[in-house]
């Protein structure tokens, strides 16, 4: 597999509806499903769940 196939660049969007996004990479072998991370949303000024969008 090529490097881009194994660790693609993904966007994770805030579930709070603010529209704020982070850009990161994920390992497809370890996380084949959609990724959810708890990260800081500067618009709300608190930590919320961020979900991978495709």
TrEMBL record:
Highest taxon, organism lineage: Bacteria
Gene Ontology CC: one annotated term: ribosome
Keywords annotated in UniProt: Ribonucleoprotein, Ribosomal protein
Pfam families listed in its UniProt record: Ribosomal_L33 (PF00471)
SUPFAM superfamilies, sorted: Zn-binding ribosomal proteins
Family: Belongs to the bacterial ribosomal protein bL33 family.
Entry-linked PANTHER family: 54S RIBOSOMAL PROTEIN L39, MITOCHONDRIAL, LARGE RIBOSOMAL SUBUNIT PROTEIN BL33M
Designated name of the protein: Large ribosomal subunit protein bL33
Organism: Streptosporangium fragile
Phylogenetic classification of the source organism: Bacteria, Bacillati, Actinomycetota, Actinomycetes, Streptosporangiales
Gene name as annotated: rpmG_2
């Amino acid at each position: 597999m090529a490097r881009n196939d194994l660790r693609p660049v993904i966007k994770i969007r805030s579930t709070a509806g603010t529209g704020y996004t982070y850009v990161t990479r994920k390992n497809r072998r370890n996380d084949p499903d959609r990724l959810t991370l708890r990260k800081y949303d500067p618009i709300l000024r608190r930590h919320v769940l961020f979900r991978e969008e495709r």
